[in-house]
Amino acid sequence: MNLAALLTSAGINIAVCVILFSLYSVLRKQPCNVNVYFGRTVSITKRRSDPFCLERFVPSASWLVKAWRTREDDLLAVGGLDSVVFIRMVIFSLRIFSIAAVICVFIVLPVNYHGQTTNHPGIPEESLEVFTILNVQEGSKWLWTHCLALYIITASACILLYFEYKHITRLRLAYITGSSLSPSHFTLVVRAIPWSPEESYSDSVRKFFTKYHASSYLSHQMVYRVGKVQKLMSNAGRMCKILRDVSVEQTHTPDLFHCGMCGGATDSLKILATDSESVKGKSSLIDNSLGGRKKVCAAAFVFFKTRYAAVVTSKVLQSSNPMHWVTDMAPEPNDVYWSNLWIPYGQLWIRKIATLLATIAFMLVFLIPVTFVQGMTALKSLEKKFPALRGLLKKKFMSQVITGYLPSVVLILAFYVVPPVMMLFSTVEGWISRSQRKKSACFKVLYFTIWNVFFVNVFTGSVISQLSVFSSVKDIPGQLANAVPAQAKFFMTYVLSSGWASLACELMQIYPLLCNYIRRFILLKEGYNDTLSFPYHTEIPRVLLFGFIGFTCSILVPLILPFLLVYFVLAYFIYRNQILNVYIAEYESGGQFWPMIHNTVIISLLMMQIIALGVFGLRRTPIASGFTIPLLIFTLLFNEYCRQQFKPVFKNHVAEILIDMDQKDEQSGRMEEAYQQLHSAYCQAPITPDDSCSSGGSTRHEGDIVPDPENAKPPGEEPSQINPSWNVTFDGAESRKI
Amino acid sequence: MNLAALLTSAGINIAVCVILFSLYSVLRKQPCNVNVYFGRTVSITKRRSDPFCLERFVPSASWLVKAWRTREDDLLAVGGLDSVVFIRMVIFSLRIFSIAAVICVFIVLPVNYHGQTTNHPGIPEESLEVFTILNVQEGSKWLWTHCLALYIITASACILLYFEYKHITRLRLAYITGSSLSPSHFTLVVRAIPWSPEESYSDSVRKFFTKYHASSYLSHQMVYRVGKVQKLMSNAGRMCKILRDVSVEQTHTPDLFHCGMCGGATDSLKILATDSESVKGKSSLIDNSLGGRKKVCAAAFVFFKTRYAAVVTSKVLQSSNPMHWVTDMAPEPNDVYWSNLWIPYGQLWIRKIATLLATIAFMLVFLIPVTFVQGMTALKSLEKKFPALRGLLKKKFMSQVITGYLPSVVLILAFYVVPPVMMLFSTVEGWISRSQRKKSACFKVLYFTIWNVFFVNVFTGSVISQLSVFSSVKDIPGQLANAVPAQAKFFMTYVLSSGWASLACELMQIYPLLCNYIRRFILLKEGYNDTLSFPYHTEIPRVLLFGFIGFTCSILVPLILPFLLVYFVLAYFIYRNQILNVYIAEYESGGQFWPMIHNTVIISLLMMQIIALGVFGLRRTPIASGFTIPLLIFTLLFNEYCRQQFKPVFKNHVAEILIDMDQKDEQSGRMEEAYQQLHSAYCQAPITPDDSCSSGGSTRHEGDIVPDPENAKPPGEEPSQINPSWNVTFDGAESRKI
């Protein structure tokens, strides 16, 4: 592949991006797409559709301007701390790669270019290898520039990282102080309540906490597990509701479907609907009679009088049997993942191990598409596999497209499978909050992506078996130093195709857009009205992967940096736009993603240094190798310093702050208000049955509604009292709301 | 080496052991050795010397009987929980290796013996290899017996481990409940108190805790750092005291030393003594004038009103800057390692990393003596190195002694360096309690020993460079499976010499015995009167190392098991005897050693299985290999289960228990008593200057006595008030008291 092929690839991608961006700027002005592109705004204020005018069909850049002008405070107010953390990650990448690009393009690139090859055929015809470190002679003195660049990049990255971490720590503290009456601060989740034949779980909890935490215990609320009968019942109810909706609409507006093939079906559907209605009418009776069957779980929310008491109780080991009375701070009410609260605590460690093994197995199975992709970059092997294509592949343009563009596309498509699978694994792991589940999925996707995109690609290109590489530890730097520049063209096209195109797809929201059109113009319904929460578990790994590629390639293949820089600039605008307009911040982790981001950047830096070590070793400049080792040690020490200095704030609640908040609230008398909120905050069923069926955009999905069989007392003091009329389950409406 | 050579080695060792044991049984009856062999009893009740009688010179086994008859409760009362944990470890080893010995000697050994070699020359002339797995044919069906033995040993080990862990957890809980008024339960160590120019550290502490923990805060006590002037002064004072003692005794009892060469010296010593006396007289004046120079450290002991409040405060993050106000539960007063309290908290993480690196470096440097030892077992290379010895080495007996005995002796001697070095590393690490320091040293010594005795020996015997082995991960099982049986003779002689002899040395207490004789008969002083605390950091690694060797060799070299069994039987008696008579339990960790012991046993089991995997691979029995993998997984799961089930009790205080204790004490009115004790418990200077100089057997060594420059208030409420007359440092009297 030469520079011309690369530019072809870049040209295709730039064209695609420009078209898509223009299309977006038009589509977003159409009133029918308002639910797709302004999901967040719509969910807050119902926008009226604008009158028809020509301006609606002229592409414009107003969204870019708006995204640019938004300040961090507004972003914080709109998207929560997590979105700010995300944008800070993009800004950090932007900054560090600007520095790296300046240094590498103006210092390292000329050194590479004027290395071994002396007679250059003219820049467009130049092979890409000429721009990589492979072109530098062994023992060349000019390798010092690479070492210098390494130092500058590492130092700037550490300085920037330090200030980002500091800034985000401050934001997190402000976030905690700001969410002043958040019920989660007063609440614990108690799991593994020991079962006793004499008393109910609820009585056990009351007894335990009045005995040991009498001064701070306020009240509690049990968690209920929905029995199979309820589940079936509610599913049937939901089903009939949907079917009735469809059939009602179809009778109102006869159309192709109705006239053609569904006419007969509608009648039977109607019968079904009536049947299920009558069943539904009786369901409350059955519910009451089967009340005893609804299982109380060995888990409860316990409310405390002060924030400090809650934190403190969550931190200590309650019982001499560590598998009983396990306490944890409760997630925010919106953040609770109810069905995982039902999992017996004793299973969790097994589940963790099982998911770990499953993740590793999945990683290895995934080698198949990756190897296939790698095969495509080697055109000759493709010709062997598909002899019919030989004629086509002989054409220059086609071969450029195939080697330059298709592999990444295959990889991208294959990668669409990964986030849902990882999310499933994280669900099975048993996290009780949706933000933790997402964080765990993010972690899995991240390392999965780095492994499968970077390492496997690097090593299938150069060595046959990946695992055999890792069996010989000390050769790894050398192997990497050889393999990474050799795979330069793959990484560049990956940035061009996967990077830029994924941003364009993100902006276009292709899947919701299609859903919207199908619902609106084919099903003739109200249109797409799901609000989405930001998919951190797919987007953070993607941005970090490009950071990883950037760091590891910066010195070896400096030509990649301009493309990366474009990616980060686009990412900056697009993600800001999406946070402002599309995604809704239902729940958030409070900046918990940052330590993971920080660690990944550190790993990228270390990887860069290890590869440089390999390069200097191969190029026989032992002194430059010697200078790289202190850098490695410095990076590790810096990481450890940050871990000491900032990490605890992300893992623990700060006593000082909570006590201050407690004291302030007690003085101002707002404590009573907080207690009032607690009573209704953690409700397994906050919506009435009919609402739950009709409102597709509801913010709660896993909330299974069950009456409390135990508490037959009058409502008031006991928050575990749930209205027995709420008895319909709303389940499985998740699709992309993960 | 054949069986006869092994039996020679065993014979030598048995003879040495019998002689030493008999000698011990005589020596212990001599009144002059009472301080050596009954240090613990003497320190409690001053025993009178028995009248002279013949019985004193007849060897007897009464000590064995006494050690056998002691119950665990008595041991607990005498030696504390740590000693019980130690003995439980020995009992566990005894049990599991009894099972292993029965299975391996009666099932595996005959299979090995009747393997490849068909014409046996008669058992004494048999090479040791005939008894190892190397004698089994490839693909032999009899390898199933090895697999079966593996299953039985693993299963029994896990069952025994489970019950031991359960038992020790119960003991630990009883230990906490039992130490009812222990001041450490009410006390926190606060470090990294932020410095402010307006107020002193003491005021900062008072302000912080009255603001945030007003309801539970009782009082506090600052930690002081001894300035250089004080240190010099007190050292001078101590020196002069010692010199005066010596000179006084010498004038009283003129002897060889006095008449011969020290006569002139004594006079000058007297002058020195008088000089320093006058200096000492002035020292209090200087002390007062220099009072301001004695540095208050950024650390304090903070006392709380209840145990629960103290635990809770230690668990939460106090400040939004995690490097400020770091709280931890205080160690027992006897357990405090004062000089490490002075270390600025911010240094600790650097120190931890530095010691880690130093430990690794030390491990690598230590390869030199180990390689030398390994060279000795290969007799021919020794002949090359020392041609003069050739004649001697030709003799059969000598060669048997050298290959069978000397290598281990060299190794043992070299290993005498390790524990003090590791203890030094642990001191530098900055642990604030002596038990934690010992535990950390124990951990270091353990992995150092396993690495240097097992891995390095195994691989120098078979491969040239150790590190190159570990660069190829997947070959390790196979390499081990080849190398371990090849080193069978080394391990057997190591058990015989290092194992048995070290026990005999432990029993004889050679170093204190020599000191005693030198002091008593040459210096003509009172005799050895240092009380020792049990050297867990040398003894636990030793016993665990033999366990490790036992597990890894059990299937490959079953002949080692009878020797090991003898070792553990002897260990059982000897350590019980020593705990009962010699060592004093000044401070203890409360069973904290057990999780480490448990982990090491698990690692040993895993190692055994990995080696078996290699063996089955080499011997081409893939099904047996297949059966080993579930065993590996089962062992890991078992370990994880134990970690979940028991470990938290060792890491945390149990709220339930502490609150119960608080409530009971409050009801019985004993709380006031506890508060009274707190005032004097954590005193940096519990002894008056003269005491500190004369009492060699004092329990406090690092206690540097400093007056409190800040608190000029009358004594009473403030426990930070220290009597200003205590101003002499007592330092460096540690020798073996680590």
From TrEMBL, chains A, B:
GO terms for molecular function: calcium-activated cation channel activity. InterPro entries: Csc1-like, CSC1/OSCA1-like_7TM, CSC1/OSCA1-like_cyt, CSC1/OSCA1-like_N. It is a multi-pass membrane protein. Keywords: Calcium, Ion channel, Ion transport, Membrane, Transmembrane, Transmembrane helix, Transport. The chain crosses the membrane at residues 6-27, 85-109, 142-163, 353-377, 397-425, 445-464, 543-575, 596-617, 623-642. It is found in: Membrane. It comes from the Eukaryota. GO terms for cellular component: plasma membrane. Residues 185-340 form the CSC1/OSCA1-like cytosolic domain. Residues 5-164 form the CSC1/OSCA1-like N-terminal transmembrane domain. Belongs to the CSC1 (TC 1.A.17) family. This is CSC1/OSCA1-like 7TM region domain-containing protein.
